[in-house]
Amino acid sequence: MVVELSYEQVRRRAPEDIVHCRSTAELSPLKEIIGQDRAVKALQFGLKIKERGFNIYVAGRPGTGRKTAIVNFLEELAKTRPVPPDWCYVNNFDDPYRPKALRLPAGTGAEFQKNMEWFVSEMRKALTKAFESEEYAKRREETLAAIEAERTELTNRVSLMARKAGFLLQRSPVGLLIVPVVDGKPVSDQEFAQLPPDVRSEIQRRREALQDELRGALRQFRELERKAEAAIVELNKKVATYAMEHLFQMLLERYGDIDEVREFLEDVKKDILDNLPVILGKGQARPQQPQLPFPFPGLAEDPTDRYRVNLLVDNSKCEGAPVVMELNPTHQRLFGMIEKEARFGALTTDYTMIRGGSAHRANGGFLILPVEDLLSNPLAWDSLKRTIMNERLEIEEVQARLGFPMTKTLTPEPIPFDAKVILIGSPKLYYLLYSLDRDFKELFKVKADFTTMDWNEENVKKYACFMCTVCNKENLRHLDPSGIAAIIEYSARLAADQRKLSTRFAEIADIIREASFYAAEEGAEHISKRHVDRALEERVYRSNLIQEKIEEMIARGVLLIDTDGEKVGQVNGLAVLSLGDYGFGKPNRVTASVAVGRDGIIDIEREAKMGGPIHTKGVLILSGYLNGRYAQDKPLSLSARLVFEQSYSGVEGDSASSAELYAILSALSGKPIKQYLAVTGSVNQKGEVQAIGGVNEKIEGFYEVCKARGLTGRQGVVIPASNVENLMLKEEVVEAIKAGRFHIYPVRTIDEGIEILTGVRAGERRPDGTYEEGAINHLVQERLREMAERIKEYPR
User: Fold this and answer.
1) CB–CB of 318/83 below 8 Å?
2) Backbone angles phi, psi at 49, to 5 degrees
3) Which of 106, 231, 372, 520 to pair with 38, CA 20 to 30 A apart?
4) Do residues 311 and 99 touch, judged by C-beta distance below 8 A?
5) What pLDDT shows up at residue 384?
6) Which domains does the chain have, with CATH numbers?
């Protein structure tokens, strides 16, 4: 026999002394993940294992505090890990298209960048001072003196040779000119043209002979010039080296144990010595590198810009491994970019415009990414997989990845990647990626599930600490014991389970904020139960306009729902309407008509293409139940029609399959169903009533309709017995049950339910397959027997 539920059974109470404190102000803020032992164990395993591919996917519903909990958890863990190195990009003097990456100890990058700025400034001063000194002028003069003597001797020898041949040598911008001498005077080209032909021919003959003799001398002149230039270059290098040596030594003393930095400083030194005229502003550099399509803008303004250091990752402020959460994981924000600037109508760039991304900042630590946002950004997901698989970070142009034609640009040296990647997303996305992306299962081998947690003393205390954390962080009023208990009960309602607490911490935090607002408005010192209740009531009021309109239509008779009397083949089913931020229960009239025929059960919703596959499955199960129970000795000669009356938006789910079966049994037996009762629950072929979702909302939805018409003391809802532990009904409904004005009946079988709905016993099956007379099952069996006999009169 079914026993209706007492008011204690429809809502679990949290005693006000559930946490021994006068308010949450006395508690310690939460510093750990609560109630997620499975997830914590998975996280600890995934974060400690060093092997490749053991990155983590954190699965759970949005608003469960996954991100905050993971960040807090990682920040504590990160403090025990070493601080990763800094990374810089510097100029590659051999190939400017491929800037070099330098690894520096943590906190050294910014220092090295500043020291190189200091070096450039001091180097200029030192070189200027050295090359403007009297000592340098003296050494230059001494270096050139011997060469000048050779040049003078050679010049005198050549001049003498020319005079003997009747010519005079004159210097010009294009070299030495051979000027003929006539009557002891140099002759110009115009005067030479006026000379007699025989004189001109003689002079020309002597000039050609002299030129042959002078070629060797000219080669000696050029050799002397090269010798002088080489001597000056060598002198300049010695002077510059001596002037800069103390600066390089200071840098080497600080960074000499870092091979990459020592090599870079050697390249800088060589480049300075090779480009002294440009650095000193006294000439143009010899071409040391090819012309870039994106030329270095700085080189045109200041040749020493090529010695700058581009600090890509600065870990100087880290106290352990970095924890980076990128909420907008675009390709550029994750993996960096190469910036450009427009100069005189052309785009220019250089290695100082390379910018790192979140993956660079997280290198050596932890990178947290929301997977849904990651997948919605082109190229980001593929680049992340490639980075993890190749274990290196590459900064590249997005346009090139998309296949757009591009001019040649920079290709920075890749950086080794060693970070643990944590994806946060829904379980559905996890299963989709696992099934459809062949790389996913190899790269994310650890899954951490966030779900509801048990309602026990330890978790309740931690839950109260979470409330303390929210209040402290946002300067809200703290909760007193009644407020704590109210939040705990609301958490259980969110979980829809008397044994569980919800981990939808974002929603819990919102309720605390709203309750604090009403407490402040009232001038209360603490948040109490009445403030939490008001916050919940106001939240419902802001969102339940559609619900009120539907209830108004029911009250006015527009939507036909009976809450009194009895009718054959008609029952009140219950459904949940979800409107995004708010869901509520709504009664629906379910009717059944039966006749002799061979069609079986016809679902009108399905025929009208308004029924979903799960609803269709539920209706087909009804045929299995009827065949198994009543058609063992005769064919089921039935044509039944089922319909949700006034349903215009489609029907899905099997939670009304028991209501549909009750309507058919009523129509077959001729026994009316009490209209002041509503029904929810699915059914299997054996006649067992199964649990459904949204039981609280469904009960409350029918309660509101009955309340609007006046509670008679007979109204109530028939629910699956397996849903009793899911009950966390509103206080108003609990009080109505306590006063005997509303009832909840838990049933395990269709027989139990039909007895409550009709007031007629279902009847036990006898050994011969019949039922006791007058019972529902007997009436149904006899009606089906009559139909089977009748249909024989109408052969196919």
Assistant:
1) yes
2) -70, 135
3) 372
4) no
5) 95
6) 18-29+454-542 (1.10.8.60), 37-84+318-450 (3.40.50.300), 117-280 (no CATH), 548-793 (3.30.230.10)
